[in-house]
Write a structure and sequence with these properties.
Rossmann fold, 7-stranded mixed sheet, 9 strands, 249 residues, 24% strand
């Protein structure tokens, strides 16, 4: 499938109830707890951005890690799944008889410059990325005009001059840096052992902020998936990869 195709995602989410990419909440929970705790000393409550939330239960499970659900902002490319998740949360609260504010839910194309600029400036302290970078890496290169009008170092709109195509993860990193506060943790669960290797080897594109100057890769942990207890065939272990990137000051 084309993971950059909105029609694919809307069609999928129309039929799909829930789906967990890669691993469950238990894998991410200690890392998210630590990242949120690190930012709890700030003047305001840590703000959590969950990108590409999809139909995962993670969106609601993270509620247990914050003081108020309004600290969690779940976003997705598909408006279909955002509306379903909003309804699912309301139904959950009603069934539990809980009086609680809901999480925030927004439809957002993370590769759209106009949507990112309209979405707002630096606000988030923790970014959760459960295989969203994987999906975006499979999308087509993004056509942008340079100098780029999202500048995560000195924000603002500037005149366009030339048009180039850019690797989509470069655009994602620039856009997330624009939304992140200095010191923000970008926590990524990926199937790829080299998802962010390009940060070291990137070739500078004049007029485009360099992702490697916006994010430092602090941790890369290999996570072995537990074997299926019903599988009688010996198979090599399946490895997933957890990355922690830090927004530069």
């Amino acid at each position: 499938p084309s993971f950059g195709d909105l029609e694919y995602w809307n069609t999928r989410f129309t039929k799909e109830d829930t789906f967990e990419w890669l691993a469950d909440f238990a894998v991410l929970e200690p890392w998210l707890k630590q990242a949120i705790a690190e930012r709890s000393g700030c003047k305001s409550r840590p703000q959590v951005l969950h990108i590409g939330c999809g139909s995962s239960a993670l969106s609601l499970q993270v509620r247990d890690l914050v003081d108020s659900p309004t600290q969690i902002h779940n976003v997705d490319y598909s408006d279909v799944v955002i509306e379903r998740n909003r309804q699912r949360e309301n139904e959950m609260l009603r069934s539990l008889g809980v009086q609680s504010e809901p999480c925030r839910w927004s439809n957002l194309d993370l590769l759209s410059v106009s949507q990112i600029l309209d979405f707002g400036g630096p606000e988030y302290d923790v970014i959760i990325d459960k295989s969203t970078s994987d999906a975006i890496s499979c999308a087509a290169d993004v056509s942008v005009r340079l100098p780029y009008c999202v500048n995560a170092i000195s924000s603002g709109r500037i005149s366009h001059q030339t048009e180039v195509t850019v690797y989509p993860l470069d655009i994602l990193a620039v856009h997330l840096a624009y939304l992140a506060r200095p010191g923000c943790s970008w926590i990524v669960l990926s199937y790829s052992a080299s998802r962010f290797s390009y940060l070291k080897d990137e070739v500078a594109t004049e007029g485009l902020p360099r992702p490697g100057e916006l994010w430092n890769l602090e941790r890369h942990e290999k996570i072995e998936q537990p074997p299926d207890p019903n599988d009688t065939v010996h198979r090599p272990p399946v490895m997933h990869h957890l990355y922690v990137l830090r927004r530069t000051e």
